[in-house]
């Protein structure tokens, strides 16, 4: 057994549980005007923990492509720190915030659970495999659209031209970035579900 396997099993198990907590909080407080207060800190630190996945890919302990992993993790970390934390009034007043967290947490609970089962050496149930490679078809557009809207709103309210310019630049990157991520997942879906 490779030395990294127990670590990855622990990492994926903890990540699944953390995202499950975010998901349950979002579902139970979806229309609550204080949803940001209820889940913001958990979402921020749970997403920040995922930065380890860039190291996992870069060091070769996972087979994930480094650039794709970096792109997704970096974009989400910018979202939770620079947008959601940096502009709480924009975040807490928008229905895009719970929609984004619902999409992220649903996808990540399934993804981390899938990897936990795989690493534990248990046969992956067909439903879990299908969910892992199919939910993104709906959840990615919800998540990406929500991220984009929250960043756009932050760009329109900031007093700093430098921050606004940076946000507008990032908003422009969403089009090629989201196409790249979506295309990658479609290929992964085809390859995995055709087996």
UniProtKB/TrEMBL annotation:
Known pathway: Lipid metabolism; fatty acid biosynthesis
Keyword Endoplasmic reticulum: yes
Record-annotated membrane-spanning stretches: 7-27, 101-121, 133-150, 162-185
Family statement drawn from the similarity comment of this UniProt entry: Belongs to the very long-chain fatty acids dehydratase HACD family.
Membrane topology: Multi-pass membrane protein
Cited function: Catalyzes the third of the four reactions of the long-chain fatty acids elongation cycle. This endoplasmic reticulum-bound enzymatic process, allows the addition of two carbons to the chain of long- and very long-chain fatty acids/VLCFAs per cycle. This enzyme catalyzes the dehydration of the 3-hydroxyacyl-CoA intermediate into trans-2,3-enoyl-CoA, within each cycle of fatty acid elongation. Thereby, it participates to the production of VLCFAs of different chain lengths that are involved in multiple biological processes as precursors of membrane lipids and lipid mediators.
EC number(s) stated in the UniProt entry for this protein: 4.2.1.134
Superkingdom of the organism of origin: Eukaryota
PANTHER family: VERY-LONG-CHAIN (3R)-3-HYDROXYACYL-COA DEHYDRATASE
Keywords: Endoplasmic reticulum, Fatty acid biosynthesis, Fatty acid metabolism, Lipid biosynthesis, Lipid metabolism, Lyase, Membrane, Transmembrane, Transmembrane helix
Subcellular location(s) of the protein: Endoplasmic reticulum membrane; Membrane
InterPro entries: Tyr_Pase-like_PTPLA (IPR007482)
Record-linked Pfam families: PTPLA (PF04387)
Species, as recorded: Aspergillus lucknowensis
Protein name: Very-long-chain (3R)-3-hydroxyacyl-CoA dehydratase
Catalytic activity: a very-long-chain (3R)-3-hydroxyacyl-CoA = a very-long-chain (2E)-enoyl-CoA + H2O
